[in-house]
Design goal:
The protein is an alpha/beta fold. It has 17 helices and 25 strands. Strands 1, 2, 3, 4, 5, 18, 23, 24 and 25 form a nine-stranded mixed sheet that branches. Strands 9-10-11-12-13-17 form a six-stranded parallel sheet. It has a three-stranded parallel sheet with strand order 6-7-8. Strand 24 and strand 25 form a beta hairpin.
Length: 560
């Protein structure tokens, strides 16, 4: 007898093949049969009524490294049909760590990924030193599966101590390689590093490893030689530069392991796309990683980024309850003070851009398309109403609607983003689940991709459901060697989503204060997930957690 039988489902199996109507049987955490199975016995039979059945989504770009210590549901990702996450991205994480230096890793994570340090201090038990000991600590039951990568920042900090911002010596490189090797043997799914100008510590310094020499990158990569698992994730500003592409190609050939690189769109950083064309044709894997939309932030009174802070008059109301602040934003006397203010300048050029580039500061569309037009911008609103842009800003913020800022070459639609997603070499990621708590809630992108990009989009063509599901399941799983999931077929893990596709939708972002020590985070819930199954057990029904914790820590290679 099977444990679960889902009958009369419209199955989109994760391979990209056309959907089909079928029944799916599950036993002992595995899919046992797919077909016409009427009359088959099962402990529980669910009539899907023609609803969409997909594999559980595999999110390869998250930052739950600390949150998994206290949140065994791994929210909000698990609310959006995600059944597997990979964390330890962008070079930041919490192992290895020298006893007594834990606070420094917390500060780096707080600065780079906007995760409240107070929450990390209170919510993490610590007690580990090596990466393997960290894995042992987080090897507990979860609602979903989790896997972790070795972060370059923590690795450098562990090996080099206070010298971690300097050039590494030959001895440092050897030590980093040996530690990475042991971490991979212990079950790390890969290694990650940041070479991005925007990743700064609290003092404004580039995080350790940003300018690491090619010799250091190659030395660390040598840890992968001879192993049959592990991916390498890189965020870099230099993916069009010959010297960067040279060591990347060398590592790809040396290790034979998949490499993934964060890119804004298909038309940007042509060098890495050309290298992918060249090396992938030879059987290697260079996978530029793209997201559902350009890098972005949401700005609110409660959030990390609040445009009102640039005006000296705001200091007089910033400590009031938020409802009172919103009322003051509509007060004529207060508004007159703001209009007369000389705006303050942030020490960070990007911050200045985000809070005062009025034609690129968009009111988040009510349809949650994240594809706004000029008319949705602060400048567009001010122009239409014949008012000052600062008045338009205060009106919007008083109305509690988040302001969306999209980085890169956003020209009024997401065609460049869609082109990148469709590219044969791209891999889908960049949800940043668990991070950027005060400015982002992109852990919701699986729902966004299905509801908006395959069904609701009007600014251009939609994408086929089968393609989008493939990009979020089999394709992402295979990058990290998780070949046991991401497909609905006999023998695969029973990680499944039963979805009321016609009614699938996102809810508005909201700020909640549910992290340890009352830390805040932006979340975004969804409607339309009839059922989520992980490892054969129903974890969510109609958006409610069942209490089941069938998820586990995934260990790569022999440690798996």
């Amino acid at each position: 007898m099977d444990d679960l039988l889902i009958s009369n489902a419209f199955v989109v199996d994760g391979t990209g093949a056309p959907g089909f109507v079928a029944d799916v049987a599950v036993k002992d955490g595995r899919i046992t049969e797919v077909g016409q199975l009427r009359g088959r016995a099962a402990k529980r039979v669910v009539d899907a009524g023609g609803q969409l059945l997909t594999p559980g989504f595999v999110d390869i770009h998250t930052h739950f490294d600390g949150q998994v210590c206290w949140d065994k549901q791994v929210t909000p990702s698990s609310w959006h049909g995600v059944t597997t996450v990979v964390m330890g991205n962008c070079g930041v994480g919490f192992a290895p760590v020298r006893p007594g230096s834990e606070d420094q890793l917390v500060e780096l994570m707080e600065s780079v990924e906007d995760i409240p340090g107070t929450a990390l201090h209170e919510g993490m038990p610590w007690g580990w030193e090596s990466f393997g000991e960290y894995l042992d600590t987080i090897d507990t039951p979860y609602t979903i599966d989790i896997g972790a990568q070795v972060p370059h920042v923590a690795l450098r900090h562990y090996v080099m101590g206070e010298r971690c911002y300097d050039d590494a010596t030959a001895e440092d490189m050897t030590a980093m390689s040996e530690i990475t090797r042991q971490a991979l043997v212990d079950g790390a799914l890969g290694f990650s590093t940041s070479r991005f100008y925007g990743h700064l510590d609290k003092a404004g310094n580039l995080v350790p490893g940003t300018n690491a020499a090619a010799d250091e990158m190659v030395a660390i990569a040598e840890a992968f030689v001879g192993l049959d698992h592990g991916a390498i994730e890189v965020i870099s500003d230099h993916l069009d530069k010959a010297e960067e592409l040279s060591w990347i190609e060398h590592i790809a050939r040396l290790t034979g392991r998949p490499m993934t690189f964060l890119v804004p769109a298909a038309g940007a950083v042509k060098g890495i796309w050309d290298l992918a064309d060249k090396l992938n044709a030879e059987g290697l894997q260079i996978r530029p990683q793209v997201g559902a939309r350009p890098a972005s932030v949401l700005m609110t009174l409660e959030g990390t980024l609040n445009p009102m802070r640039q005006f000296p008059a705001y200091a007089g109301i910033k400590d009031l309850p938020y409802d009172e602040q919103r009322a003051m934003l509509l007060d004529p006397a207060f508004r007159a003070k703001v209009l007369a203010d000389d705006a303050k300048t942030s020490r960070f050029a990007d911050t200045n851009k985000m809070i005062s580039t009025w034609h690129k500061m968009y009111v988040l569309p009510t349809d949650l398309s994240y594809e706004p037009s000029y008319e949705d911008s602060i400048a567009g609103i001010a122009e239409a109403r014949g008012i000052h842009v600062r008045e338009a800003l205060m009106d919007v913020m008083a109305d509690q609607r988040p302001i969306l800022f999209l980085f890169g070459k956003y020209n009024g639609d997401l065609e460049m983003q869609i082109e990148a997603i469709k590219h044969q070499h791209s891999v889908f990621g960049l949800s940043d689940g668990g991070a950027h708590c005060g400015v982002l809630c992109d852990a919701s992108v699986p729902t966004y991709m299905l509801a908006y990009m395959t069904r609701d989009r009007t600014k251009g063509d939609t994408m086929p459901v089968e393609f989008v599901v493939h990009k979020m399941t089999q394709d992402t799983a295979e990058l990290y060697g998780l070949t046991d999931r991401g497909v609905i077929a006999p023998g695969y893990r029973a990680d499944l989503n039963l979805i009321d596709y016609d009614n699938l939708c996102l809810e508005d972002p909201e700020m909640v204060y549910d992290l340890p020590a009352g830390g805040k985070r932006l979340i975004q819930r969804a409607q339309g997930y009839t059922m989520t199954v992980c490892n054969g057990e129903v974890t969510y029904e109609n958006g409610e957690h069942t209490g089941a914790m069938p998820g586990r820590l995934i260990r790569g290679g022999a440690g798996r």
